[in-house]
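Budget justification aside, the reviewers requested a transparent look at the raw inputs and outputs of the sequence design task funded under Objective 1. We therefore reproduce one unedited record. The lines immediately below are the C-alpha cells for a 242-residue chain.
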C-alpha cells in the first residue's frame, strides 16, 4: 500500500479537470492507497474543500501547517489529542502575539487557531520580518517556528512541529511504512515533508524555494502542474514501489 501525503492548495487544487482525473485514478485503486492531506488549512476550510472544491475524503489530515492532526471516521474529522499534547507543552500563543506587535508589516489572516498564528506579509520584507521574529523569540525565550510560504504567508507554530514531523508521527501511529509513503507539494511550507520522507512529487508549478530545497535529491519532478503533476508522479511511484 502507498500512503500519499499531499499538500492541497497549489498542489491538488488549481486545475479542476486534472483533480477529477486524479480522484478517479485514486478511486480506481482505493484499496492500494492511504490518502492524507497536509495543508495550512484549518478543519473548517478542509471541509469546504471536500464539499465544494472537489477534494475526495481522505483517511487522515494534517492541518494548520502541521499543528493539528485528524483521522477520518465515517466522514468525520477526529482530532488527535496525543499530538496536541506533545506539541503544546512549550507553546505560548499569547507571547507569540505580543511579540508580533513589535514587528512591522504584518496583517492578520483573521483566523483564531489554538496552535498557530498567521499573518499576511509584504513579499519584499519577508526575510527582514523572519529575522525580526527570530531575534524577538531568542530575546524573550519564545519556543516557536516561523514558516513563510509564497513569500506572503507567515505561520508561527510550536517549535517541535511542522508538516513533516506531523506526518512522521501519523505514519508511525497508523503503523504504515515510511518507505512506501509519497509526499507531494508546491511551496516552501511543504519543504519539511520532503525532508522527512524519501519519495516525493514536486509538481510542475512548484515555487522556486521548494525546487531549491529538493534539488539533487531523488524526488520526482513532474512536468505538469497541480493535480496532473501529482497523478504523473503517482503513476511513477506505483511502478517503482511495486
Amino acid at each position: 500500500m502507498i500512503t500519499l501525503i499531499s499538500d492541497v492548495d497549489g498542489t491538488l487544487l488549481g486545475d479542476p479537470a486534472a483533480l477529477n482525473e486524479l480522484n478517479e485514478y485514486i478511486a480506481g485503486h482505493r484499496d492500494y492507497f492511504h490518502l492524507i492531506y497536509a495543508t495550512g488549512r484549518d478543519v473548517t476550510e478542509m471541509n469546504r474543500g471536500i464539499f465544494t472544491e472537489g477534494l475526495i475524503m481522505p483517511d487522515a489530515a494534517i492541518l494548520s501547517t502541521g499543528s493539528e492532526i485528524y483521522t477520518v471516521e465515517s466522514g468525520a474529522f477526529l482530532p488527535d489529542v496525543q499530538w496536541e499534547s506533545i506539541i503544546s507543552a512549550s507553546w505560548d500563543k499569547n507571547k507569540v502575539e505580543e511579540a508580533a506587535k513589535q514587528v512591522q508589516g504584518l496583517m492578520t489572516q483573521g483566523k483564531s487557531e489554538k496552535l498557530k498564528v498567521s499573518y499576511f506579509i509584504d513579499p519584499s520584507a519577508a526575510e527582514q520580518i523572519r529575522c525580526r521574529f527570530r531575534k524577538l523569540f531568542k530575546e524573550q525565550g519564545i519556543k516557536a517556528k516561523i514558516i513563510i510560504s509564497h513569500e506572503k504567508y507567515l505561520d508561527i507554530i510550536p517549535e517541535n512541529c511542522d508538516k513533516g514531523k506531523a506526518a512522521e508521527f501519523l505514519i508511525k501511529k497508523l503503523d504504515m511504512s515510511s518507505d512506501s509513503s509519497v509526499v507531494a507539494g508546491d511551496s516552501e511550507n511543504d519543504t519539511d515533508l520532503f525532508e522527512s520522507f524519501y519519495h516525493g512529487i514536486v509538481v510542475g508549478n512548484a515555487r522556486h524555494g521548494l525546487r531549491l530545497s529538493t534539488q539533487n535529491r531523488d524526488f520526482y519532478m513532474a512536468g505538469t502542474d497541480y493535480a496532473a503533476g501529482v497523478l504523473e508522479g503517482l503513476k511513477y511511484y506505483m511502478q517503482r514501489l511495486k
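The first strand starts at residue 2 and ends at 6. The chain has a mean pLDDT of 95. Computational costs for records of this kind are itemized in the attached budget.
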